[in-house]
Write a structure and sequence with these properties.
heterodimer; A: 170 residues; mainly alpha; two-stranded antiparallel ribbon; 5 helices; 65% helix; B: 455 residues; 19 helices; 71% helix
Chain lengths: 170, 455
């Protein structure tokens, strides 16, 4: 289990800087948006520009406050509550979840709902409970429930591998 | 008033018809089931069930559909309370106090407040409609783009209620929400932030945004909640399963305390419903905000208090009758769900418009009496259903997590049969989780996104 630990004060500075850069880049991009259809009317870029100016101002305010507080603490002032707490990010488990979800979506799209739901539920439940029978039964029940509720009852066009979309008994 | 009494007896006859009563009960049950599923709101439920109305009589068909809509609005609150995953967009505010209350071991109380408030909202708005439909329709018609813009800006004020420890981060979250709402086709001509991807031309669908911003971080937390057997340190925000508390009951004394909240929520919901455009989600947002403003203890909102569930639930159910006003009186559908309802009427040869009130006979009154009956049925279904739903809250996170994530993926796909929306959910959900980890609440993001769509 790899937890990445950030000092909150530093993480906040990175966060504010990231969104400030994002706002600047997006603001520059808005000038490529189409001009207004009629002269005198606002173009497609007006609202995003106003929002991005606001976002940039909030980021600058956050950065200034953060830097000032850090300097004050350096001059032996009392640190505000939680200013320098730790932010823990469970990076490795989060990456595993995201990879699992991406594979689930890929199998759903290219193979079908049945293997996607069955494998996803089966593998994740087994990894979390270490009980093979529980994982197997839950995966079968989950796949069956998704098939009957979403495909049969609600008519959702989920990609199917082998189960019939219009079964004879229906 | 003379016309009212002329139509009352035949309208009551239509309601008392056993077939129509059975349709109302079936509609409520189906609506609740649809509402529970993420990705299926009232509009999707109505669209899917539309073909079934072809075989029904006009009054039965419209009562059935209205019952489905009411049931779905309530049903959305069940997963919102139990697993912090709003089943419908209108249930976003119910999450704020419903989920903490359930987590504190009071899921039964949260569900009862939700159903009782929703039913009262539906009853109050139906009664208001019967008395003042024509006047409300006229008021609704006066709302043009500038007035709706004002409603949107008024709604934006809600982020003032969510300023937590760090106001800067709250406003950054709000700006991100507004920015995400600008993605797609611009009303001023041209596209914005679409990266030449056709699936972004229509912007980010509200349901995808809600699932990603509210449900995904919670599902990720459930998944990251390491099983005790693994021997690893649990996440600091671990989902704690608590035993039911003795105050997990909702009695008449509790209901009496909530009456002013329910009244305010219902009136707001009826008024917002009568406006073409905003719909139940905006009604719930405004009702929650107003309730917090009226409260003597606003700091308790978000910690699992009764009023935080009651106000949005009363208002989003009140929208159903309120939204029927411009639909029936003026033929203006205020939302996708109401558009389907109008489609049902038109398919039965009934033309909505001012003449429907003068020439429609008992049908219009029957629809609203039907709404009253449907809310009474909803109370029974909701009360009985609480026993069935509560065990969900006590499932261990290790089992619930994979099911919730799989359901979110399938629900997002089901919204529009689009894998692009599932990818949007994955990207936005991860973004939302990271925002929360770094101290930016996703609530301002989603609330401002909702209002941004109006503005």
């Amino acid at each position: 289990m790899t937890d990445i630990i950030f000092r909150k004060a530093k993480a906040d500075r990175v966060l504010f800087s990231f969104f400030l850069l994002l706002a600047i880049a997006a603001f520059a991009w808005t000038f490529t948006f189409p001009p207004p259809a009629l002269r005198g009317y606002p173009g497609a870029g007006l609202f995003p520009q106003l929002i991005l100016i606001g976002l940039a101002l909030f980021c600058i305010a956050g950065l200034v406050r953060n830097i000032r507080t850090t300097r004050a603490i350096a001059n032996s002032a009392a640190a505000p509550k939680d200013f320098d707490a730790d932010i823990r990010l469970a990076a490795s488990p989060l990456a595993t979840i995201l990879v699992g979800l991406t594979l689930f979506i890929a199998v759903l799209q290219f193979a079908g709902m049945e293997p996607a739901v069955f494998l996803y539920l089966g593998i994740t439940l087994y990894m979390r409970t270490r009980r093979a029978l529980l994982a197997l039964i839950s995966a079968v029940l989950g796949t069956t429930a998704v098939y009957f509720i979403f495909v049969q009852a609600l008519g959702v066009h989920l990609p199917l591998l082998f189960l019939p979309r219009y079964p004879g008994w229906w | 008033m003379e016309g009212f009494f002329d139509n009352a007896i035949p309208a009551l006859g239509l309601i008392a018809d056993p077939v129509n009563l059975a349709l109302i009960v079936t509609g409520v049950v189906l609506g609740v089931v649809f509402g529970v599923l993420p990705g299926f709101g009232g509009a999707q439920a109505l669209a899917l069930l539309f073909p079934f109305t072809f075989a029904m009589e006009p009054a039965g068909a419209i009562m059935f559909m209205v019952s489905v809509y009411s049931g779905a609005e309530y049903g959305g609150s069940i997963p919102a309370i139990l697993i912090r995953t709003p089943g419908t967009t209108a249930a976003i505010m119910t999450v704020l106090d419903g989920a903490p209350m359930a987590k504190q071991g009071r899921p039964r109380r949260a569900l009862m407040i939700s159903v009782v408030s929703g039913v009262c909202g539906g009853l109050i708005s139906s009664l208001i409609f019967i008395v003042a439909a024509t006047g409300l329709a006229w008021v609704g018609l006066q709302f043009g783009p500038p007035e709706l813009f004002a409603v949107g800006v008024f709604g934006l004020a809600i982020i003032g209620s969510f300023v937590g420890k760090d106001p800067t981060k709250t406003f950054i979250g709000a700006a991100i929400g507004l920015l995400l709402a600008t993605i797609g086709s611009s009303q001023f001509s041209g596209m914005r932030f679409v990266f030449d991807q056709p699936w972004l031309f229509d912007g980010i669908p509200l349901i995808v945004m809600i699932i990603a911003m509210l449900a995904a971080p919670e599902a990720f937390k459930l998944m990251l909640n390491r099983p005790a057997s693994a021997g690893a340190a649990a996440e600091e925000d671990e989902v704690v399963q608590l035993a039911a508390r003795p105050d997990d009951r909702f009695g008449f004394a509790d209901f009496r305390k909530l009456i002013p909240t329910i009244l305010r929520g219902s009136l707001l919901g009826t008024a917002v419903g009568a406006l073409p455009g905003p719909g139940p989600t905006v009604a719930a947002v405004i009702a929650y905000n107003e309730e917090k403003r009226w409260s003597k203890t606003p700091e308790k909102f978000g910690t699992g208090i009764d009023e935080g569930i009651s106000a949005p639930e009363a208002s989003n159910n009140a929208v159903v009758a309120g939204a029927m006003v411009p639909a029936l009186a003026l033929g203006i559908p205020g939302s996708g769900a109401i558009a389907v309802l109008l489609g049902v009427l038109i398919s039965k040869g009934i033309v909505p418009g001012p003449s429907l009130f003068s020439e429609g006979g008992p049908l219009v009154l029957a629809i609203f009496l039907g709404l009253i009956v449907c809310n009474i049925v909803l109370l029974a279904v909701g009360t009985l259903g609480v026993r069935a739903f509560v065990p969900l809250a006590n499932l261990p996170a290790s089992i619930l997590g994979p099911f919730v994530l799989a359901l979110l993926v399938i629900g997002t796909y089901a919204f529009d049969n689009s894998i692009a929306h599932v990818l949007m959910f994955l990207v936005l959900g991860t973004f939302a989780y990271l925002l929360e980890r770094f101290g930016i609440s996703t609530l301002p993001v989603i609330l401002v996104f909702v209002m941004g769509l109006i503005i």
